[in-house]
Amino acid sequence: MAIQLVTSHGAGVYLRDDAGCAKYGNGLTLSPGQFIQADCWVSGGNVGNDGDVWYRSEEVGATVSDLFPLDRVTWTFAPYVDGALRFHMTPGMPHC
């Protein structure tokens, strides 16, 4: 599902579900208004007091129509994407 970044945070695109690991490419960070294509969530590394929910992201882009596939599975921190809305929705995004 395509999810727009609606928080005021930038969202890093990480190689694992942990902000302590490396980011994809040359430190890819998405800005509010951009999109990810995500298919499931996991409980990963905590980020401050904002929780530990991460979306598995397979594509990213400035708009839904220009989402481009990444050459590997990546992770974005759900609270910085959409406040973890897709995680909390019923029915919501499935667990990985």
Percentage of residues in strands: 35-45%
Question: What is the end-to-end distance?
Answer: 14 Å
Q: Structural class of the secondary structure composition?
A: mainly beta
Main sheet summary: 4 strands, antiparallel
| Secondary structure tally: strands | 6
Placed side by side, the strands forming the largest sheet appear as: 1-4-5-6
Number of helix segments? 2
Q: What proportion of the residues is helical, as a percent range?
A: under 10%
Overall shape: it is globular
Mean pLDDT equals 94
Rounded to an integer, what's the Rg over CA atoms? 12 Å
Write out key terms for the chains shown.
single chain; 96 residues; mainly beta; 4-stranded antiparallel β-sheet; two-stranded antiparallel ribbon; 6 strands; 36% strand
Account of the protein in words:
With 96 residues, the protein is mainly β. The protein is 9% helix and 36% strand. The chain is built from 2 helices and 6 strands. It has helices spanning 78-82, 85-88, and strands spanning 2-4, 11-12, 29-30, 35-43, 53-61, 68-77. The strands form 2 sheets. The protein has a 4-stranded antiparallel beta sheet with strand order 1-4-5-6. β5 (53-61) and β6 (68-77) form a beta hairpin. The longest helix is centred in the C-terminal third of the chain and has 5 residues, at 78-82. The radius of gyration is 12 Å and the shape is globular. The mean pLDDT is 94.
